[in-house]
Amino acid sequence: MNHNSAYALTGLGWSKLYAGSIEEVIRLAEQAICLSPRDPDIGYCYSLIGTAHLLQSHIDEAIVWLEKARSAAPAAPFTRSRLAAAYALEGETKRATAELSEARRLSSGDRFSSITRLKAKAIGSLVAPEIRDLFEATYFAGLRKAGMPEE
Prior knowledge:
It contains 8 helices and no strands.
C-alpha cells in the first residue's frame, strides 16, 4: 500500500471499520485529509470519521463530521442516512426526517425504504459481528427513531 495515497488510506479506514478495528479508523482518515486536503472526494473521509464516532456513540462528534461530509458530498445517500440516525439519537426528529427523506431521494432503488432492506444491502456478512452490533445500537436505532419502518 502507498502510505502517501489518501485514497488508499481512506479505503483502508473503511476496511478497518468493517473488520472491527474501529480504534484505527479516525487516525487513517485524518492522515488522508492531511495528505490531500483539497481532494474532491474528501467528503468520504469526513463520512468515515463521522461513522466511527456514530458507532462509538459519540453522537455530537458524529454530527459535526457528518455535516462536514454532507457539505463536501451532498449527493452521498449513506452520509445523509447516517446523519439522520445521529440527529434522531439527539432527539432532533425534524432534522432526522429531512435527512432520511433526502437519502431516499438520492438513492437509486429502495435501499432506504426499511431497516430490513438496508441491512440486506448495506451490512454484509463480511462485517465483523461486533461492528454489526454497533450498527444496530446506533445507526439502525437512530433510523427507527427517524421513522424508517422495520419491514
